[in-house]
Amino acid sequence: MSVLDRKLLRDLRRLAPQVAAIALLGGIGVAVAVMANGALKAVEVAQARYYDQTRFADVFAGAERAPDSLAARLRAIDGVVAVDTRAGGAGLMSVPGLDRPAHVQLLALPRDPASALNQLVLTSGRMPAEGRGEEAVALKAFLDAAHVSLGQRLTMVVNGRQATFAVVGAVLSPEYVYSPSETALPDDAHRAVVWAPPSAVEGATGQVGAFSQAALKVSQGANTRQVLAETDRLLAPYGGSPAVARADQPSNNFLVQEEQQLRTLTWLLPPVFLLVAAGLTHMVMGRLVETEREQIGLLKAFGRTDAEAALPYLKLAGVIGLLGVAAGGLVGAALAAALVGLYADYFRFPVFQSQFDWSVFAITGLIAVAAALAGAALAAFRAAGMRPAAAMRPAPPATFHRGLFDALGLVRHLDQPSRMILRRLERYPARAALTAAGFATSLALLVGTQFMQDALERVVDDAYYRTHRWSAQVTFFHPRQIGAVLEAARLPGVIAAEPVRMTVAWAAGPAGRKRVAVVGLEPDATLAGPLDAGGRRLALIGRGVVVSKALAERLGLAPGQGLDLDVLEGRRPHLYLPITALADDYSGLSVYMARQELNRLMGDGDLASGADLIAAPDLTARFYDSLEARPQIIAASSRDDTVANWRTVSAKSFSISVLFYLGFAGAIALGVAYNMSRIILAERSRDLATLQVLGFSRGECAYILYGEIVLIAVFALPVGAGLGVAFAHALALGFSQDELRLPVTITPRTLGVSITAYVVSVAAGCLMLARQLARLDLVAVLKTRD
After folding, report:
1. Which domains does the chain carry?
2. What's this model's pTM, rounded to 2 decimal places?
3. Quick one: average pLDDT of 573-597?
4. Sheet hosting strand 241-245, strand order edge to edge
């Protein structure tokens, strides 16, 4: 081992705490990238294998009752290589232990399981025995959430007919990897999917010799849009619902959006930590070169080249970077496994294991080492440029002059320690700016990530307490005459009822087109209605429509313009309607209009798809029991259950993410504060010792040491808060989905938690040197040369 390498080891031992603090920040950047990509790759690998194993379809379509002979015509569509049809229906099912009946989908098992599309994976129990029409299998997520055991019999009302099945097996399905409820949130206990033998399902749904769902597999390179159009054309005479491609299939669409969020996390956070680590490396290496001037001069006097003089500092920076890469890889792999474990509660794959993405680890590791080397480059360049004679002499005293603070008289009324702090900040502005940038970055990360919980709370408040004020909602099997709403109003406990008409359409604008829900409401409705940015109810006037802001942004539309709607149900009219206002709606892509006008345009009578209700809380049980005798009602939602379920789901995920971001962002403030304290103590130890000899107390010396850092941290507060708001906007843009648009909501709670974590981290970084300051050896320090 060379002399310079032995010096490197000694430097590592001597600077071990500072090296660890810098490596920690670089390691966090690597860990975030490894974690996000590990979880992303786990989802992608599990998804690809599962879809391939189960022959997941490319196109999904539905109909009221299409003859089995139509399957051959679907198979003849250009580009289609396989077609699978099945009977099915939906309704309500009473589940022991649940107050509210579950929404159930009853589907026929494939006649030929080996060649079927969307094949099931049995996880426990068995498949229904041959000839046992009363047996069925159910989605594992429902069985687990509702605590339904194998062998238990479940009774449901589907398509107006009652059926009872014994559950003999639990299965997974590629169509329900993620199974959102009507509210887009998972509610597995009230979202059942049951598969039974074809003959049993056809009898229960009245679809003997017919089907209601079709799945198509298309060849690679086929024109999917043409396949969708031809499928809709063939199914239209049989009450066909709009066909969707795999990309728009609800479960798959949610997975794709979650993968996009993980990619956003990968490229948004790691650069922040690596930049701060590079800044700290720059400050530490700059200080090290200054303290080792004489050693550098001796090396050059004995014939060492400029490169050899600079190399030790680059090596030290490289070692710091490599230590961070190694630690970040290990921590990132552990965090990826934890994140995959959290995802496993929502994404149901037969095999779902964390993956280590070596390519991302290698790329991020190289960037981390390069950032450390970049931070040390200026110091190494300065070491290389030193001349032996000049370097072996003590550095000349700095020449100081009256600065801005003195000129403005700002220090006139301050005590001497405070003047020392202000003058030092003025004499080293670049270092103060780098420190302030590190502190501001830490607070920006805290504010920018903590806002998400408040944003989702605002979404819930908007969706269930402002835009929608109903306590219960029922959905009819088919749009029904307005009298069905009057019947719903007479159910036990119902205080108020308002009709709702919903349909699905393609909405088009200058920027593209989206599939949307068109919601028809009463003009004087009080239980639901679009709101403007000030929370005021928007009027539904004539043929005019109110469009959600999210939809208007995606389509490039504004009030006063026209909206093209291709309705995908009933007579499928093409409509061109004026936009009267934009709704400040955070969930979904919706179009609102007067129900009577929507019915007139649809041309099928005074109909309602369901009803918004206010139900007495003390009669909830009787209300839900009465629904089982109403076969026309196939779904029932509860606002209180939905909000409570969201809070339960979010409590677990957010408790993990909040700790995650608090720890990572706090690590920046702690690392910056600790390294700056070390540098200031190293530079001012002689001054502090002299002051103690002259009679200054240890408290006053500590004030001089820490006052500089505290003042910078206070200055960084408003800067960090402003950056945090900007970062929150970036996160809101990256994490928003079609079903959910995050508002940037910075509440006192967000600022309180963020600033508290920031202050605690800065204080912890400073106090880590309190013991060393208390043990300052005055004699030893005063004997050292300047």
Report:
1. 1-58+253-396 (no CATH), 59-252 (no CATH), 428-468+640-786 (no CATH), 494-615 (2.40.40)
2. 0.77
3. 88
4. 80-86, 210-218, 59-67, 241-245
